[in-house]
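Input sequence (451 aa), recorded before submission:
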Amino acid sequence: MKTKTSLFVAGTMLVNGLLISQLAHAATVEFWTAQTQTDRLQNIELLASTFEALNDGVTVKVVAVDENEMATQMAASVAAGTTPQLIEVNSEIIMALGEEGVVDTKTHQDVIQDIGKNRFHKGALTTLASPSGDYYGLPYHGFIQGIWYRKDWFDEKGLAAPNTWENIETAAKALTDKANNQYGILIGTKQDSYTEQVFTQLALSNNASEFDAKGNLVFNSPATLETIEYYKELAKYNPPGPQNWRARDYYLQGKMGMFFYSTYIMDDLALAEVAKGSLSSANFKELSGGTFDPELVKNTAFAPIITHKSAASYGTLSGLVALKTKSAENTKATKDFIEFMYDPASYITFLHMAPGGMNPMLKGIAEDPAYLEDPNGVFKLYGADKMKQIVSGFDDIRSFSVVEGKTFPASGAIFAKSVIPRMIYSVTIEGKDPQAALDDAEAEMKAIMGE
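Predicted structure, token format:
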């Protein structure tokens, strides 16, 4: 009897010990994601479940938060001391959180060391760097803007790729034949965000800025003026009238040599069903409509980086951000989950939720045979070499809002008031003097900043 009791007690102690051990090592990763669509959430939850199956004692709780509400909800959670362990959000919010001191930069550094710093596209990583050289977040996905162009037309005329100011202007002039309704380029001239995006990339390539590292407004500069004057010159080779992204119809109907656009255009160039919205005469009386050109993808090349005084690409990126926590178990689980999310199988599953809209931040993924097999069959039509070139733009991605690791919210306020596109409209459409337009834009920016 004594032996049985001892065995029972010993067994109970062993079971309890195991339970205590499991509880001590249990970890939770609460993951806030800006992907709120049902199908995307299902994919992310599947990834989380897979990670849980591979990691005993770890729970991943996926929470969808609309990106427009992310900053507000994060502020509330920081104030309440209930921050999640991990979030996926745009770079502007990442930089703001970094400056508040709530992100776990050590975890980010450890992940970068494990994956290999040289595997990340340099510009994407630099975008999330702090002034001290730490990283406020880890770049995960984004889109890139550049010039899509008819390489067959360029080759016929012996034109160089449109990756410098000189090459762009030379090609725009050579490919414009207004008598036959053919135009060399599309740049934005309407008072909208497309115009701002095109101008920003050109301005950055000329080392123009809105702010310096100390937060001083430096927009009214010789570099900015030179960019405006160059922009006005390019606008001569646009289709007639104020233009925005919609004039891509000219390109899809074979009436344009090149146009600025993000990687969101990839399926329009590749798939007849997606392209049909640009093949009618509904948007422009100058266009008679056309049929889908199955050779367009093969004949189209992409120049993601423009160089004048420096190399610059334009785009947006979202990243993964580990938040500070007092639990060592949660910190380790968060790091492990981040590295799982960068594993090629997981990463490609995530990126395929929005082909062309979500591009990889790690080198090599874009050429991976599994990545090329996206659900819509788009990437295989471009091929590994083109895909590699497209994502290479993330090596030189820059913006007005981040300077030397510091973010300036005033840049967002200026963007919201359309100061730059209204300036461009006044010069290209209304014929205003570039310096006068720049002076007025500076005055508006100062008013917005309350100066």
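Checked by second reader. The radius of gyration is 25 Å.
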